[in-house]
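The protein record minuted underneath.
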Amino acid sequence: YYKLHDIIRVYKDKIIGDTTKFSIDNSDVITNVKTNDVIKVNKGLVSLKVKEKKEDCILCEVIKEGFISNESDFRIVESKFNIPFITPLDRKILKFVTEEKVDYVTLSLVNSAEDVLSINDVLIEYNNDHTSIITKIEKETAFLDIDEIIKSSEGVMIDRESLGVEIMPERIPGITRSIINKCHFQSKLSLVITEMESTIVDIIPSKEQINDIATTICDGVDAVVITGETTIGKYPVGTINKMKKIIESSELDINYLDFLNRTMRSEKQDVTGMIAYSVVDTASKLNSIAIVIPTISGYTAKKISRYKPNCPIIALTPNPIVAKSLGLFYGVYPILISEPKSLDAILKLSKKMVTEKINYNNGDTYVITGGYPFNEVKHTNFMRIEEL
């Protein structure tokens, strides 16, 4: 715990920290920081003011007291440094990511789309055309370049607590909704880090936390993320179960028709786009229990996901890499299959998967869509309604 007006030493080189000193893992920050700069630590819970620079450390006065723990974030307010975004450690991590065929990599402390593109350049250098980039939005500079960042990424992850360090907290709900809408318009993923910190010590989330998660779900986010609740919390499994229950209850109140109409207004006027709209519109009007999509690349499943239908999207694919990556998209349940040899095989397999995975009644319908011949065409060209 660091008390008000205490003098703290922040070192370049790794040391064992205590109540008088600690070190950070980027020595360039110590080199470039200026006297009177304000440093916010642990998501702004602690503030330090730089009083003096020495060769191996800086001396700071605590101007907002609080706890600092291992791995706390460390940022300098209103200062811009000419520090490369990619470190040698980053390159090692990206090499590992490439070798292990990781589906997604998340970028922290991004300032602009230029930072995202620099990571993409390294992936290209490693001949990695598989790993997708999720950019974490946690700095004001990132929000100011949000349109280009979304364009340069597969999606974004909104860290509202970190954003609140640099932006007035009253602005965060509106900014969150705006970013989700921008991602939806650009057909990109949106993820939000939700806060159920009370479940770190208590299994029951607060009403405010439940309302926050429910609002985020109804805003159309693709996925919610929890962190400390499952790393240092006492009830990680219970927290996940609570989160699942909140999500499922909130989805009952989503305005699906609104998402359908909004998506249609920004959809490409091509065959795939028009079939995607027709599939979701038909499934909605018939109250279908599922949309089934045989897919090689996952493109059609992603396209349907953007419309946010009110029934599950069952994506059947013979490609394990595609199956893994589709799991992050809204409403998509990927299933790994052997490649079907004919349309009849696709129809039989679709019925088998629907009846095995979903509770149904006689007369229920499901919609099948995709490209046929299965492994030859590169776009969606058929739609079929089946009744059970």
